Amino acid sequence: MWTYVLPRRLFTCTVIRTLCVASCRLKLPAAVNLPLLETLSITAPHYDSGRSIQRLISSCPRLIDLTLEAIYRLKRVSVLDKRLRRFALRCCHNLKSVDIDASELRSLDYCGTVPAESLLSLHGLRGVPSCTVDFCIALSQEAEFTRFRGFMEKISDAKYLHLHNRSLESMFFLGFPSFSSLTRLVLQGPLDSCGIVVSVGRILEQTPNLEILSLCMEERVKDTQDQYGTMGEEYEDDVVEKEKDGESDDLFVAPDEFTVPDEASFSMPCLRHRVNEINMVHYVGDETQRMMARLLFRNALVLERMCVVLVKGTFELQSKLKNEIDSWVVADVEKIFL
Question: Do residues 52 and 8 make contact, with C-beta atoms less than 8 angstroms apart?
């Protein structure tokens, strides 16, 4: 298979400040000299050993931003001789240990399995203000639950958290640690069961100072369009039937293993006293999303701004969804529908 090999003179360029390489071979020269390099991103290199990657990192004395992604030969990384401000580790599944000086770390981006305690050593960590966490393999075992809690506790001083929850079962949020400093939270993943709604509530209970909540609701499995049409045709029929029969919109059918949360259960301190902005992206208006929106907006007493991004649909259906959400908002807010 043909592989592009980077020119060796690239690694002795004394003026370069940013280097991003992907899907090629590094093939480092005997001497690497990158005295001004501050940002380094390496993605899926071909045939390069972990030792070469480490040597490249060690040859960048001014490095402050490091991204390592899909490097399958990488077993160990050490960045103790420089103070990173941003570190991203994505899908390096064979990695055994990472040691970094985290005394000035401002941003941590992790994607992979739930890391063992020995994997990620953040020396001098005083709290990472911004964290993005994505567990790309579904979690279910009790041992993973323990590691999940341990990892989340390690970053619990964060002020901004972007958590991909598509691979997390609801049980993982039973022991969700307190994030007392968190002011901005992004939850990304399918909102397709009552259990996920309950899990969001458990997270909100542990974020007393939250100010901005964003839900990026990913699409369901591929049968979504068959079930809901372009934007919930089944729901559109349901709205019409309820208007005819006078049926309450507050009635939802939940899976047997979960009890539908009522509004009182979502009356958390952060919603009543702190949250001033709520964003919901990819709103199709199915029962679970409607439940989530109703519980949030009816309890957000100091809300100042809300934004709901509707998926593509007819004007009539979008108007119905907009009016329904309007009826749940209790605060005097700036309303944005896209």
Answer: no
Q: What pLDDT, on the 0 to 100 scale, is given for residue 188?
A: 93
Out of 1.20.950, 3.80.10, 3.30.750, 1.10.10, which CATH number does the structure's domain 129-338 have?
3.80.10
Q: Which of 106, 74, 86 is nearest to 40 (CA)?
A: 86
What is the model's pLDDT at position 118? 82
216 token code pair: 């990026």
Q: Quick: pLDDT tens for 97-118.
A: 999 999 999 999 999 888 888 8
Which of 149, 97, 154 lies closest to 125, judged by CA? Answer: 154
Query: For the chain, what is the mean pLDDT?
Result: 84
Are the C-beta atoms of residues 202 and 230 closer than 8 Å to each other?
Answer: no
Give the orientation angle of helix 287-299 with respect to helix 194-205, to 10 degrees.
Answer: 30
pTM: 0.83
Extract the tokens encoding 153: 């506790």
Q: In 3-state terms, what secondary structure has residue 261? A: coil
Residue 29 DSSP label: -
Domain boundaries, the chain: 1-109+116-127, 129-338
pLDDT tens digits for 253-262? 334 345 678 7
